[in-house]
Design a protein that fits this description.
It contains nine helices and 14 strands. It is an alpha/beta fold and 289 residues long. It has two domains: 110 residues, NAD(P)-binding Rossmann-like Domain (Rossmann fold, 3-Layer(aba) Sandwich); 150 residues, Succinyl-CoA synthetase domains (Rossmann fold), CATH 3.40.50. The strands form two sheets. The chain has a seven-stranded mixed beta sheet with strand order 3-4-2-1-5-6-7, sandwiched between helices. Strands 9-8-11-10-12-13-14 form a seven-stranded mixed beta sheet, with helices on both faces. It starts with 10 loop residues before the first strand and ends with a helix.
Amino acid sequence: MSVLVNKNSKVIVQGFTGAEGTFHASEMINYGTNVVGGVTPSKGGLSHLERPVFNTVNQAKKKTDANVSLIFVPPAFASDAIMESIDAGIETIIAITEGIPVKDMIKVKSYLKGKNSTLLGPNCPGAITPGEAKVGIMPGFVFKSGNIGIVSKSGTLTYEAADQVVKAGLGISTAIGIGGDPIVGTSTKDAVKLFMNDPDTKGIVMIGEIGGNYEADASKWIKENGNKKPVVGFIAGQTAPPGKRMGHAGAIIGGKDDTAVAKMKIMKECGLHVVKSPAEIGNKISEVL
């Protein structure tokens, strides 16, 4: 078992022939991910990276039986690209694109309701099940296979946490980057639920940041469900001033519960093992397993 992506994933890339799509699709193919084709409107029928190019996701789905789509489409068109994948019945949709307008994501979030698709992102690094599939922009060499699930709002902190886990002599079942935008398809709680239900995941690293209530919601859910697996938590932005956006569009302190201190307090009260520095993640998860 694995979460979201695995060796059976058949991946298409939307924006396949663009510079970003080409580079990261090549990296994924080199990693061993089963990239079965891509979508670039008006370039259907061509071959790219020795894979077929299609005009639409629906055509790609019919010809390749793809179940995962990775999106490298400019922000103005990305919401349409996501909804096109939802319409085609793609099971896991991973949107890397940064800067999608919030009003577009409100529409996408509503469109997802009642559908069979799971959206990861936007503005996320993707997901990786080490040794099986890497779908996104994560550096595969950092990740080693094991039984620790990682969920993170931050891309770079996902890699840092993975490095810490591996240096502690452990490995990763799946790492999920949910993205740093105010509205994302998969919340921290959604990802934690996946890991709690995954028999191959024995412990979880949960990385959050200032802004929003994803970490608090996830922590409360973990406590309500009996703290079945140990969770190590870290919140970035402990020195961030209120009212100033820090990097991600969603990383802004809008109220007293949005601060790192407030989130860390809630996490501790809910039974999570909270660390103050990412450098402590590896030792802490090793200690509490």
